[in-house]
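Sanity check record (used in CI):
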Amino acid sequence: MDLWKLLEKQDIEGLNEAAITGRLDDHLYMYHMPYSYTAEQIRKIRTYLFHMPDKTPPRILMVTSALPSEGKTVIASNLAISIAKGEDQHVLLVECDLRKPSMYTLFKYPPSKGVAEILQGTANVAECLIKTPIDKLTILPAAKESPANPSELLESKKMSQLIQELAQRYTDRFLIIDTSPIQATVDPKIIADQVEGIIVVARYRYTRESDFRMALESLPRNKILGTVLNAVDELPAKKYKYKKYNYHKYY
Ligand SMILES: Nc1ncnc2c1ncn2[C@@H]1O[C@H](COP(=O)(O)OP(=O)(O)OP(=O)(O)O)[C@@H](O)[C@H]1O
Ligand SMILES: [Mg+2]
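Expected output for non-specific protein-tyrosine kinase:
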């Protein structure tokens, strides 16, 4: 099956078209408020990815952080929308937090089969994909029911095959993988081996320097693209600030 042909069509049988029923969550700033300050900061991340010196844009990206609730899912989702809004980039947003799926609360679909069921062999990719109201953005949820052995599933050969299948070698296709927190699980480290680039989120006045440092140290250094300092203040207009990760600063 050519998965991307399927995604391009988006209306073929098998794609979960009717899944999204409600108004998308307000935290999807790129969708609801594309001209806000926050959306502008997200767009800067996108621009950075597309204009990395001496590098073609990494297409298999992972968003992670040290602790729970730092904004990984919000950042991954907004970045996915931002890239999909580009002229010709298709994005598959893959939720790999198998323990605590939450993407459905942002995009308003019911808990749905996804990565876990595919890896367990009880579902195929096409039947799990969720079509979103954003053109060229498709979601692969984590799981309808959290599996008992998430790390083992993610570590399996099937997982690397799945990522390869999803990524196929085209230059205008992006995979954005949302993960669980590094301090709570080994999962992000497992997924890190499969991706081309990693974005590490920290939350303003929440993430301790020691936690952040630990997160950076546990990831492959050459894959870390940058950090996002999230929720910089509580003013709705200034929720994000992006700064390029300066490697030498922290060591
Ligand atoms: N920039 C922001 N402004 C306001 N609220 C935010 C912002 N980023 C995240 N939040 C809120 O903070 C909470 C945690 O965000 P999110 O679910 O994205 O974090 P997470 O790192 O993915 O958490 P988990 O580790 O549980 O997966 C959510 O309620 C989300 O709506
Ligand atoms: Mg999350």
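The chain has one domain: 3-250. If this sentence no longer matches the regenerated tokens, the check is flagged for review.
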